[in-house]
Amino acid sequence: MNDLDAIDRAILATVQQDGRISNARLAERVALSETPCARRLKRLEADGYIGGYRAALSRRALGLGVMAFVHVRFAVHDRALSERFEREIQAIPRIVSCHNISGSADYLLTIVARDLDDYGTFTRDVLRALPGVSSIESMLSLREVKPDAGVPLL
């Protein structure tokens, strides 16, 4: 991060906010001409500061009205079991994020569902059947106060 100057940071902030911005508009916003701006953007991509581009979809418009944060606990802490659990969750689209965490739980999952009935069925039929899972604790989002705005450029 120390290798980034103010222009690099401005480029990152701008493309994080609008990944479809044209190079001409980006160059204008960061006060560069187009060619140096394009070169910097390519370097930031090549150096791994930009991991990819994607659209931010509206889960509500897609009919996914429930967002749950789930603590998953294991009774037995076995590396092979954890690796199997992690492999299996990769294939479940409605688990939108998974973090191996410290504290009273082993993993924190973010899960989306159409409604509470759909979430209940998913919990019963999928979550509880994952390898290693001994207990789960669900916390349902009542209202999103601050959506994921990307990574801060400190």
UniProtKB/TrEMBL annotation:
<protein>
    <submittedName>
        <fullName>AsnC family transcriptional regulator</fullName>
    </submittedName>
</protein>
<dbReference type="GO" id="GO:0043565">
    <property type="term" value="F:sequence-specific DNA binding"/>
</dbReference>
<dbReference type="Pfam" id="PF13412">
    <property type="entry name" value="HTH_24"/>
</dbReference>
<dbReference type="InterPro" id="IPR036390">
    <property type="entry name" value="WH_DNA-bd_sf"/>
</dbReference>
<dbReference type="InterPro" id="IPR019887">
    <property type="entry name" value="Tscrpt_reg_AsnC/Lrp_C"/>
</dbReference>
<keyword id="KW-0804">Transcription</keyword>
<keyword id="KW-0805">Transcription regulation</keyword>
<dbReference type="GO" id="GO:0005829">
    <property type="term" value="C:cytosol"/>
</dbReference>
<dbReference type="InterPro" id="IPR000485">
    <property type="entry name" value="AsnC-type_HTH_dom"/>
</dbReference>
<dbReference type="InterPro" id="IPR019888">
    <property type="entry name" value="Tscrpt_reg_AsnC-like"/>
</dbReference>
<feature type="domain" description="HTH asnC-type">
    <location>
        <begin position="4"/>
        <end position="65"/>
    </location>
</feature>
<keyword id="KW-0238">DNA-binding</keyword>
<dbReference type="Pfam" id="PF01037">
    <property type="entry name" value="AsnC_trans_reg"/>
</dbReference>
<dbReference type="GO" id="GO:0043200">
    <property type="term" value="P:response to amino acid"/>
</dbReference>
<dbReference type="InterPro" id="IPR036388">
    <property type="entry name" value="WH-like_DNA-bd_sf"/>
</dbReference>
<dbReference type="InterPro" id="IPR011008">
    <property type="entry name" value="Dimeric_a/b-barrel"/>
</dbReference>
